[in-house]
């Protein structure tokens, strides 16, 4: 090990030192020894590494490789990031991409940025967007309220996902004054998301440990230590993600399955392990060519909705309605106001859903809202929305967004000023 | 509380902080209380047992010191007997009863369901060995420890409490009595040792365990070459596990300014079995030499008497490791190996005309290779509890029959593409460790790490921290030697 140092206490000025120079020399000597200490240099190196991680975010940079884990999946990566942040928003918006696209379009216009319409932008900016600056601005201008709004909409988010996001937010000490829930029909009926516990949001958040969970579950010392260190040390918090990258990279190079689970899923006697992540799910590379030209609305997503609404699963709808009820119940218990928003959609989209089911769904949503005294807002009652207000059959563009946020801002102001 | 647990990560800094901030007179009592808290974190009731044995040995040591010369032997005998009786009751009662039941079954063909199910108090073997050493040294004329706090702390000092290294009291007492000022080197040396120890345990031993476990799940479905690979894997696993533990123990002690003995000195470059035991678990082998082999007569008598003493020392040493026949077989095997080595040395000394062969480098490397293979065969008996299974594995390994797994052609099962990536990683690890064993040991001999400029050492430590954090398993296995 390093050569023995003399006792810290024993470092005294030499006899030859002058009275005035002795003390600074001793301090310099002591500081020099501290700076040469292995422990101190190691700590400095670790702190530098942590700072570099914070600046470069290597996991995000590695996303295009397909080796990153679920936490880095562009659809949900913002959720753990938000929950572990120190931000305490006044308003939390949960729902689907119906909330994200208009927010991005209005915000980029407000900040004087050019709108982008390429694949990379959708996945890396829109789907992981956390803000609603334009809405905040409207509220500030109209009521002088400096509210912080967190946009936690997730691509193809279900109502059950909204419940989990709200629950984990409360568990992380982020209690908003108002919770805004998107109650568009897709969140209750999406055939692609039949099992509520298999959605990306659920997979990422179900095991996400927040302080609230630890307290409730009377966690052991080990879990508390892991949580405490993870809260203070970013790299430690993300360690499983880094491990996943290394293991998947090694698996890729060697041709072996990354873990026991993947190995057990491989065909018997087969040598090719299943792919880690579908290619379509892998984030596009940052150097993809940006596309700044807004395309005419060709209702590009209508096929997806057709499929989703074709065979409505009543049990799924009932389950999702139960989650809505649980969300409102939790909000009531926690003293959080709720605003249910019936998202504007194009007529082409609306007519795909059987009228009876649509009416039944609306009736049940209204009944649940009434039971828990939650406010319901239908922006289509205030503004007319035409095809020109949408990018496709469901996502509002900037003009649709401005109408939408106009209604929403008024409603938020009214709700928050209503004591 | 495991060294590789978060509880310890909290406990250690807190204790270190208290130690260095308290007035000097309170430091040792505080360390004693902390050590008992550490022990109580397993099964609190056993604190009473260890406490009682400590009080007895301390008082008995005083009585032994004060006893008339002609009665000293009797006092020593009683002191050792009480300690061994305690060890025997808690560690070997189950074994004795089940072995007796086995004998009854063999004789009468009737199954005797005798079991006593006594829980083994952690670290009792190490406590008892330190107490026996203490009594022996007083018998040999050393002065007993006056203060009970000092004696209790010598026995219970938490870094060495569960798995050693087995300390010697004159040296440790001198360190306890020394008034230590706070030095930065304690932290530099201590923390780097702890990091290296954790890396050995969590990055190497725990991963190698995966391969060993895989091999032992169905040993006879593998060929001889793969069985050798598993034996090598276990050899490195147990080395990194135990030497990792020792490094953490030494590093933890260093944070309080205490130096405790080393336990390993590159054991896998040993050139013969005697050399191996000078390098492996040094604190135990020197204890066995000083308090078992020498009192039995050592090598003072005839050749056969020396062989007898060697044999019994190693057999009892094997039994000390665990109350199971496989440890006895392991001890016997090492006893026989040591005897064989002595015989060989005798023959070698007579062959003066072949001295140039024995002095050449190739002979040295061949000796290291053969000794390592012999040690690995021993590890099979150590690891596989069923001695007949172990014997069969060794038979296949030695006879190289079958070379490859039965029914698999000329392929290795461990290289099958369908196995998770951790398997080829660990196989690579074993191969790399085999290849680097000599060069790394040479670097270690040259104290290469210690000679590095401090910045590189710090970079190495920071890298270890990040590697540990990244690959930290959710549940790390306890250290192998905790069961002894």
What can you see in these coordinates?
The complex is a heterodimer of chains A (419) and B (484). With 419 residues, chain A is mainly alpha-helical. Chain A has 20 helices and 5 strands. Chain A has a 5-stranded parallel sheet, with helices on both faces. Chain B is mostly helical and 484 residues long. In chain B, helix 8 packs across helix 17 and helix 13 packs antiparallel against helix 15. Chain B is globular, with a radius of gyration of 24 Å. At the A-B interface, helix 2, helix 12, helix 14 and helix 15 of A face helix 1, helix 8, helix 17 and helix 19 of B.
Question: What is the fold's blueprint, element by element?
Answer:
The complex is a heterodimer of chains A (419) and B (484).
Chain A lengths: L18 H17 L2 H19 L1 H4 L16 H6 L7 E5 L1 H14 L8 H8 L6 H11 L5 E5 L5 H13 L6 E5 L3 H4 L10 H7 L4 H6 L4 H12 L1 H4 L1 H16 L5 H6 L36 H9 L3 H21 L2 E5 L5 H4 L4 H17 L3 E3 L20 H20 L2
Parallel strand pairs in A: 1-2, 1-3, 3-4, 4-5
Chain B lengths: L5 H16 L2 H17 L5 H21 L2 H40 L15 H16 L8 H9 L12 H9 L6 H34 L6 H32 L17 H7 L2 H12 L9 H19 L3 H26 L4 H5 L1 H23 L3 H13 L22 H24 L2 H4 L2 H18 L13
Mean pLDDT over the full residue set of chain A: 87
Rough outline of chain A: globular
Helicity level of chain A:
40-55%
- Counting DSSP E segments of at least 2 residues, the number of strands of chain A comes to 5
Query: Oligomeric status of the shown chains?
Result: heterodimer
Mean pLDDT figure of chain B: 92
H/E order of the elements of chain B?
Answer: HHHHHHHHHHHHHHHHHHH
- Which regions of chain A contain 5 or more consecutive residues with pLDDT less than 50? 1-17, 269-281
Q: What's the short version?
A:
The complex is a heterodimer of chains A (419) and B (484). With 419 residues, chain A is mainly alpha-helical.
Jot down its keywords:
heterodimer; A: 419 residues; mainly alpha; 20 helices; 5 strands; disordered N terminus; B: 484 residues; 0% strand
């Amino acid at each position: 090990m390093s050569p023995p140092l003399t006792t810290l206490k024993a470092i005294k000025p030499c006899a030859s030192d002058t009275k005035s120079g002795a003390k600074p020399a001793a301090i310099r000597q002591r500081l020099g020894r501290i700076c040469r200490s292995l422990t101190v240099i190691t700590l400095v190196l670790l702190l530098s590494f942590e700072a570099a991680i914070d600046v470069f975010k290597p996991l995000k940079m590695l996303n295009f490789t397909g080796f990153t884990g679920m936490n880095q999946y562009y659809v949900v990566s913002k959720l753990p990031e938000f929950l572990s942040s120190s931000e305490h928003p006044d308003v939390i918006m949960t729902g689907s991409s119906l909330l994200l696209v208009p927010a991005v379009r209005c915000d980029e216009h407000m900040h004087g940025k050019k709108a982008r319409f390429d694949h990379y932008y959708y996945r890396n900016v829109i789907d992981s967007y956390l803000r609603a600056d334009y809405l905040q601005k409207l509220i500030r201008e109209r009521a002088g309220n400096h509210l912080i709004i967190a946009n936690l909409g997730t691509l193809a988010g279900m109502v059950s996902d909204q419940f989990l996001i709200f629950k984990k937010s409360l568990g992380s000490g982020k209690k908003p004054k108002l919770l805004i829930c998107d109650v568009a029909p897709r969140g209750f009926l999406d055939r692609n998301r039949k099992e509520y516990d298999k959605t990306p949001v659920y997979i990422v958040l179900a095991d996400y440990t927040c302080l609230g969970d630890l307290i409730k579950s009377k966690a052991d010392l080990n879990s508390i230590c892991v949580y405490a260190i993870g809260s203070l040390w970013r790299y430690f918090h993300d360690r499983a993600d880094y491990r996943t990258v290394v293991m998947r990279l090694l698996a890729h190079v060697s041709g072996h399955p990354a873990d026991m689970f993947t190995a057990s899923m491989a065909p018997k006697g087969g040598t090719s392990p299943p792919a880690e992540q579908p290619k379509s799910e892998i984030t596009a590379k940052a150097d993809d060519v940006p596309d700044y030209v807004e395309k005419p609305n060709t209702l590009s997503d209508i096929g997806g909705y057709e499929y989703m609404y074709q065979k409505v699963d009543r049990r799924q709808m009932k389950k999702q309605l139960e989650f809505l009820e649980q969300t409102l119940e939790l909000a009531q218990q926690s003293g959080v106001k709720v605003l249910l928003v019936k998202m504007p959609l194009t007529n082409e989209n609306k007519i795909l859903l059987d009228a009876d089911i649509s009416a039944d769904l609306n009736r049940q949503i209204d009944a649940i809202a009434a039971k828990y005294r939650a406010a319901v807002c239908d922006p289509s009652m205030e503004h007319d929305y035409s095809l020109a207000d949408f990018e496709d059959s469901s996502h509002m563009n900037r003009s649709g967004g401005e109408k939408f946020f106009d209604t929403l801002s008024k409603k938020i102001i009214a709700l928050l000023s209503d004591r | 509380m495991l060294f590789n647990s978060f509880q310890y990560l909290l406990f250690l800094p807190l204790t270190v902080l208290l130690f260095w901030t308290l007035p000097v007179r309170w430091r040792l009592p505080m360390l004693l209380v902390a050590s008992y808290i550490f022990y109580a974190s397993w099964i609190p009731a056993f604190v009473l047992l260890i406490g009682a044995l400590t009080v007895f040995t301390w008082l008995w040591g005083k009585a032994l010191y004060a006893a008339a010369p002609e009665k000293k032997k009797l006092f020593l005998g009683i002191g050792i007997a009480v300690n061994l009786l305690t060890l025997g009751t808690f560690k070997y009662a189950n074994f004795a009863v089940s072995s007796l039941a086995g004998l009854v079954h063999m004789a009468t063909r009737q199954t005797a369901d005798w079991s006593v199910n006594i829980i083994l108090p952690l670290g009792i073997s190490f406590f008892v060995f330190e107490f026996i050493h203490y009594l022996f040294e007083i018998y040999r004329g050393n002065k007993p420890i006056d203060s009970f706090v000092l004696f209790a702390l010598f026995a219970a000092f938490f870094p060495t409490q569960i798995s050693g290294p087995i300390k010697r009291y004159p040296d440790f007492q001198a360190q306890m009595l020394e008034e230590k000022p706070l030095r930065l080197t304690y932290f530099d040396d201590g923390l780097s040792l702890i990091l290296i120890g954790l890396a050995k345990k969590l990055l190497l031993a725990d991963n190698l365990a995966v391969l060993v476990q895989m091999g032992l799940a169905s040993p006879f479905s593998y060929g001889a070459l793969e069985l050798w690979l598993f034996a090598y894997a276990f050899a490195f696993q147990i080395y990194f596990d135990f030497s990792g533990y020792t490094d953490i123990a030494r590093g933890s002690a260093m944070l309080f300014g205490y130096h405790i003995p080393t336990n390993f000195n590159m054991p896998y470059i040993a050139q013969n079995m005697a050399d191996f035991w000078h390098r492996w678990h040094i604190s135990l082998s020197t204890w066995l030499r000083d308090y078992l082999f020498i009192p039995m007569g050592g090598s003072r008598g005839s050749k056969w008497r020396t062989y007898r003493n060697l044999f019994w020392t190693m057999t009892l040493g094997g039994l000390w490791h665990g109350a199971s026949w496989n440890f006895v077989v392991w001890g016997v095997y090492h006893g026989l190996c040591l005897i064989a080595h002595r015989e060989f040395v005798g023959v070698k000394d007579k062959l003066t005309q072949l001295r140039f062969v024995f002095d050449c480098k190739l002979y040295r490397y061949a000796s290291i290779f053969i000794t390592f293979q012999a040690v690995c065969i021993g590890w099979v008996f150590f690891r596989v509890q069923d001695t007949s299974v172990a014997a069969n594995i060794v038979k296949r390994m030695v006879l190289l029959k079958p070379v490859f797994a039965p029914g698999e052609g000329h392929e290795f099962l461990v290289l099958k593409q369908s196995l998770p990536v951790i398997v080829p990683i660990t196989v690579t690890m074993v191969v790399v460790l085999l290849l680097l064993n000599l060069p790394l040991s040479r670097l270690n001999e040259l104290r290469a790490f210690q000679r590095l400029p401090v910045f590189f050492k710090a970079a190495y430590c920071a890298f270890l921290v990040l590697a540990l954090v990244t690959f930290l398993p959710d549940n790390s296995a306890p250290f192998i030697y905790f069961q002894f």
